[in-house]
């Protein structure tokens, strides 16, 4: 399957799949420029990265300035943020690189220590590359398809396979005292916020009290903060209780018609079961399930 | 990428197309819709009018009957459907009738032949038909052909109890009185004339164009009663006409065939005329053979009379015949055939044990109840109302036969050929069936009538006696001349009762039931000689083991000075020796060698070969243990004689010790409330249980600051150390925070603290991580995870902006619950199951080994497999819980290949906690929400609705493939087991077919740490840093644990390419990863930013589409597995890029 362009004319192998600019860059409908990527210079096959300037209507994230951010698709799993940074610095100095599984706003930064961070999936990713200068974007977008980016070179080899796993294993061994420190730090922080919370509540409670002159400050919380939060479960329980109360008051099997109804119901139940069984049998018969051998 | 359409891949492709299964479901539904008028299928809706209209009396009765007589109306309908399936169609009946008519006409025109000597068969020479009888020794007499005196239909067809398949119609041809002589009963003269007469009939029929190929057979394997099998010429050969030759009524006096009389003279039989007078031995079997030929017509009259009285008689007999057939009891020598079934039903009717108005269901139940409760080997029954004075009495019958059921004439024992063992088998089956019937949680219809019970899948151990000719020697050794005469030279039948009683005595309490295969009726062409006795198929002995005692190494006999001691010594011969026991007694005893479970499994074989050699001169080599080599695939190493039971026990003991030490730890801020194992090794179901490892520290790189050993990339991957998961619950307390992150940190603090204390108080090497604490103890690695019982709840809680506390289920909480609550519970429950059934663990391991070897272990969880096997033990109906590996494996494969997951939930009733109403509730819920539930639905007492163990897999195509492969493996195994003499390789079913896969990634054996576990391990082994003897001291350093490059590689591959391909691998030492492209992912898709991973762009007419970049992906397989991957083999013959 050779990539075919525009008028459907077949080109040579490794020919760009889109419109070719004078510089050799390949742009496809949708505004993406296709770049190629090789693991090392001796690799035979290439991945295709699609790049485009980052453009969303309302970018709230100040880390992704619209004019200097390049949006990259299909970054292979063995490219870490530093590798991507290295690859793209040929277009100009890179300020930061951010990789994520799906395009979209960045998840909230968490400040957890390294031990408590959850490891991400090692899949293909999208990247947001922030250059220091806006001109780098254009440089990247006009990069020709036939000169592939290299992931690993002799100067900066990228660890893959066995070497990577051994490295990761070494990294995964936890220094006991460092872990203890991290835990202690977090718990101190946590206790502090808890204390602050308690203090705040106390303060609010105090505000509810009459002051010397007998005034009470009315706050947004209505009749003061509740001791425990509303919960869905509690709500349901009350509803059930009321239901039960209602039912207890009803009389069953009292009037003749009620008893007649119960009998009728019994027969109807039998009938229903009979019909259900018949249906089940029909299903089995359709599958020839009654052949004993 | 396009697939080339090769026939070999097509079936797999179909399987991968997921909608396939759904489609067949649609088919069913549409056919159902067609069958129902109101076009509603599920859930059932009856209109109000229909449901509440006034019931008619008839309908009320019907509903009441269904409610009272059957568990539910379902069973009644099921039985009706079954009867419809086995009944003969009108078309077939017509065909049969016309064929019988034709044959009848042909038979009437048999030409007469001149009178010749009995030994002279020259009159048959023209047609080359051979006499269906071995004519030695010779006997005098005259014979000639004449047209039959009469031709009558007898047996099941005129009675109306004939059922499919193998429809046979019995035709009795009466030999004219002129051919016979009143003294013909003696010395086999009558049976020979009978055989000659049949040969004469065959000669006549063979010339007719309406008749297809002719065969001889013999009735219930009795060589004295040959029958002629006639099939119509042409394609419809599903009907067989069986022609019996019978003497004219009242030709021979029944009293001459009293079981204590002799009708075969020793002088004639042996050919040696002895001078002295001797008492001739009685010939009860020969007598009943001759007598039996006189009676088919009176028997038919008798049965017809009864069946006319009772409307459900025919159906009941048909059901009983199905029941017998499923248990392989209806054919062969000494069988309980359809005739006996009808006679039994008649007996029940005539003794008023059943009423005439009962329905077929009740009759069947009563018949089974009668069989279960009556021992015909001790107290025989008779149908004779007023026997004449010359008829033998019941005690006389009992002294001559093992099982007694006397016919209406009072002279014939209809169970003459049956061995006591066979009757015990029937009794056992009947009582089992009644139990299943009464169990409301069971589908008794399936268990009783629908599941076949072939011997190798039913009995725990099956031993085969090949070389039937060796039994001739046993006859001599046991001096059974009288019996041999009685069975007219059939030494197998003569010696069988003696072998059975010998085995029964020798095996005693070790077995619960001993059965033997019924020698099959031979069938041979009319143009060839009758088969010899030595050509009979081998005899199989099946036994149900008594799990507590079957493998005991000691056979303790009576005290040395007691009179029974001599008997004991006689039985065991030289193996019996005097032994003194701890209680001071000195007794005779036999001690069998066996230190491990693996060796003990062979004790039964040793006993059997020893006894048969000692008493019956049968050499060792003729006794074969069927499927006795299955254990080889779960042997830890070739050189050791253990299949892992002992190693599992060691792990459990070490865990118990650790658990005790954890409980006793001092200085924890909160106390421990439970320590539970959550790993297969702690319930004896780990395929290869971890063995204590002694490490050579010189093999590893040592990291000083972390004090841990590290693997090195230029050496072989170190020995894999399995972490054994332990869940440690801490007490609930107000001190636990109410926030998820804080709980995680507190748990980490606990891990650290536990590690410190274990180091201080017991000097274990420990290493804490936020998720768990690793403890290195006795060469094993325990991974302790602290759990807080409220954590899943905390994970589910959320506060809405309005301040309302809501509870929402999420996968994170579910996963935690599975890890900390369900898994430990399952582990302890299954551990309990292992205590009840000692071979549970081994069967689980075998099952997982098979699934692993067939590359399915990545798709189905270990816990789910353990539950499947547990099901075999908890609901074995119609079998008994397996007590041996081979039967366990066969039943597992059968379950996998035959269970219909689409319409049935698999209910594993652990600890018997589910009641009948629970089961119904589970079923109803399952039916109501089938579409949203996992394909493989397993319910347990703790999990009625979600099937937590199979949520993630297997998927529909994988399950389908699993079913196909299981069926094929079962087929191969059963074929192997049927011929144990061929010395087959059991590993055949443990080698996966690799043709179906698209890419094969071959791995370097050097870097596969578990390579030694492979089904076919490579001869080259690599040093992996463990030493056999004492390992060097690690100096408190932590070993390399849970480091398996293949596992890491697989998880990376699945992460990166999981949506494009499926990856299959055998976790037990596999050397190849098989990749299967998902066809759906390979379709051209329009360019989308969310769908670009691993794909390349193509622009046609200004529209960009994408397709997977296969070349780059295959290259990535190589890059990502650098150091581990030997080579990547794209099987491009199946697809093109």
TrEMBL record, chain A:
Q: Which Pfam families does the record cross-reference, listed alphabetically?
A: RRM_1 (PF00076), RRP7 (PF12923)
Give start and end of each RRM domain.
68-165
Key words of the record:
RNA-binding
Instruction: Name the CDD domains on file.
Output: RRM_Rrp7A, RRP7_Rrp7A
Q: Which domain of life is it from?
A: Eukaryota
According to its UniProt entry, the protein's GO biological process terms are:
ribosomal small subunit assembly; rRNA processing
Spans annotated as Disordered: 1-20, 201-247
Indicate whether RNA-binding appears among the record's keywords: yes
Q: Which residues form a coiled coil?
A: none
Q: Name one GO molecular function term.
A: RNA binding
Q: Name one GO cellular component term.
A: UTP-C complex
> Entry's Gene3D superfamilies?
3.30.70.330, 6.10.250.1770
InterPro entries to which the protein is assigned, alphabetical: Nucleotide-bd_a/b_plait_sf, RBD_domain_sf, RRM_dom, RRP7, RRP7_C, Rrp7A_RRM
The family note in this entry says: Belongs to the RRP7 family.
Provide the protein name.
Answer: RRM domain-containing protein
Q: Which organism is it from?
A: Astyanax mexicanus (Blind cave fish)
TrEMBL record, chain B:
**Leader sequence residues:** none
* Chain segments carrying region Disordered: 1-37
Query: Which Pfam family, any one, appears in the UniProt record?
Result: Nrap_D4
Q: Which GO terms describe its cellular component?
A: chromosome; CURI complex; small-subunit processome; UTP-C complex
Q: Which GO terms describe its molecular function?
A: RNA binding
Listed PANTHER family: NUCLEOLAR PROTEIN 6, NUCLEOLAR RNA-ASSOCIATED PROTEIN
User: What exactly does this protein do?
Assistant: Part of the small subunit (SSU) processome, first precursor of the small eukaryotic ribosomal subunit. During the assembly of the SSU processome in the nucleolus, many ribosome biogenesis factors, an RNA chaperone and ribosomal proteins associate with the nascent pre-rRNA and work in concert to generate RNA folding, modifications, rearrangements and cleavage as well as targeted degradation of pre-ribosomal RNA by the RNA exosome.
The entry sums up its family as follows: Belongs to the NRAP family.
Q: What is this protein called?
A: Nucleolar protein 6
**What is the protein's species of origin?**
Astyanax mexicanus
